[in-house]
C-alpha cells in the first residue's frame, strides 16, 4: 500500500504507521518490508522511519510503499 504522510486522492489512500496499524487490525503480521521509489523507475528497500515523512500526495504519484504479509486472526 502507499505509505508516508497520511492522505488520499480519488485513486488511492496513503497510509501512515498509525493508519496502517488500524487497517491491519484483526490480522497477524508475518512480515513487512518498506520501499522508496526512485525516479518512478526503481524501488529500493528502506525502513519505515525514513519513509514516514514522504509526501506522495503533492507529487501526484506514490513515492513509498509498505508491503505486508499477514493472515486473518
TrEMBL record:
<protein>
    <recommendedName>
        <fullName>SAM-dependent methyltransferase</fullName>
    </recommendedName>
</protein>
